[in-house]
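Help: read this over?
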Amino acid sequence: MKYSGIVELGTKQEAKSMFYTYAVGIDSRHRKDEIVYHYEKRQHYILIYTRTTAQFQIDDEEIPVKKGTLLLISPDKRASYTGVWEGYCDDWINFYDPDNQLANFRIPINKPVSLQENIPVSQYMQLMMNAFHSGMAQRDNVLSQLMMAFFTLIDNYLNSSLPQIAHYQKLLELREEIYANPARPWSIQELADQVSLSPAYFQDLYKKAFQVSCGADIIQSRIGQAKRMLAQTNLTMEEIADRCGYNSPVHFSRQFRKCTGYAPSKWRENALGENMVVTDHG
């Protein structure tokens, strides 16, 4: 079977109470009719994160799996999987656990775990792929620590008493759009419509997700933009007000003073005099 993005170490490393990464695959793609097999009595675990829907079989159990599912397959299990309506794609890691460190984590083995979109599984696997390629002297230690951090993240996600926030990924994308376009005349109704929620429910979820109201975040995005323009350009107050979504310099100046404690002209004077580092907050 040919995989994309694979690197392998031909032999197992000496055990030192660590996870040992044997092979890594990122964005591995297979045809719809292609079946991936893993035989039992291996020495390594297989960690799989699905990027498409798939049909798994672990020993004799048929398991339909949706996109965004994590599976941890133990060495004693036979496994096979294939795409359902399209070609199959996943990220995966083969690793050794010589001292049974997985026992320290409350993560199901040989059972699918559906994850929310905001859990950075692929990002962690990309970090592990980069470390695997690096050739650094402490590569095995780094990989083991990344595995520890990853399993801790998944354990906390699965067992946290905090409620998971619905629509988090869509809310995060909207927040990024707000900060990328502070001059846009945003309204709560428009934003709520983009995620098909009522304005009240949208505002409630937004505050739970980011610990700030959506309205306050819109203002903060504009003030952050204004700070950068004051410190880094020669634009007039009228021009800055317009580019930050304010209809008048008076409204801009009033809100800027309320958020920062300074008039825009005074803030510019201080920023230029002190080489101030500009951020979106504070």
Q: What stands out?
A: The longest strand covers residues 20-30.
